[in-house]
Amino acid sequence: MPILRAGPWGNLNSPHEDEPTVKDDLTNIYPVNCARGDWPNQPWRLLYNKNSDISIDTGTAALGSPIAANGVNYATVYFDFNWQATEAFDVTFQWDITTSSPPGSIFPTLEWSWDTIEGTGDYYFDTPLESGTIDITLPASTFGTMRAYIDGLDSNGVDVRTEASIM
Amino acid sequence: MESNVNKESGGIFDVETGYYKPLEPNEQTGRRNIQDDGVDAVNRDRALQNSIESGGTGDLPDGFAEETLDIVDSNNTAAQRIFLTKSV
User: Fold this and answer.
1) Which CATH architecture fits A9-166?
2) 3-class DSSP state of B47
3) How wide is the angle at C-alpha A147 spanned by C-alphas A91 and A57, nearest 5°?
4) Measured between alpha carbons, how far is A10 from A97 in angstroms, rounded to an integer?
5) Taking burial as the number of CB atoms within 10 A of a residue's CB, which of A55, A164, A166, B15 is the most buried?
6) How many contacts, defined by CB atoms under 8 Å, are there between A and B?
């Protein structure tokens, strides 16, 4: 059964919000996508926040578009988006953390979670390797929201670069 | 000659008179309702009446407007459909 589109931005409590002028996770609303596909007049996108001890920036990115945060002690990339889907589908969270410090000085942490307007949800936390991918299955839902982040901490405090994408 | 014509259009041959008796429309097929002949006579007549009342111009019902809206179709495909909408 087809689902009427929500959005273009929104959240679980308010699925029909206009696109904000300032795209910042402080607004607590995020792009609404059709599973992994584009809408007829709006491409797939997520809201990112690349955050470190020396800079912070937010914006929107396409499916598969890498976002990189650069820091001295830590660098984190956050992703937020909403979806609507008539069938379950997979997205892949990819990350790569690098530093000029000696090997073994990076401590990565990864977390993702999703919730649907129907009341289902899932959560995952890990201290993974410095690079990798993880598949996440998102269920059919009239409105779902997902958040993920990957953080790299350089124990030597020299430099750290965290790159990530949702594919 | 006459019997051949009637035979082609359907009818019952009366052995006493030697003539074909024409059938009523439903008798020709033996079909009585929409399940039998695929014709929803009630809604067909209602649609015809609506068409007459609107002057046959295909106007939308009073108060309704056409809107093209995005949907998520089967197989997670984004698509568009035309909806008839009305303010409440």
Assistant:
1) Sandwich (2.60)
2) helix
3) 110
4) 31
5) A164
6) 47
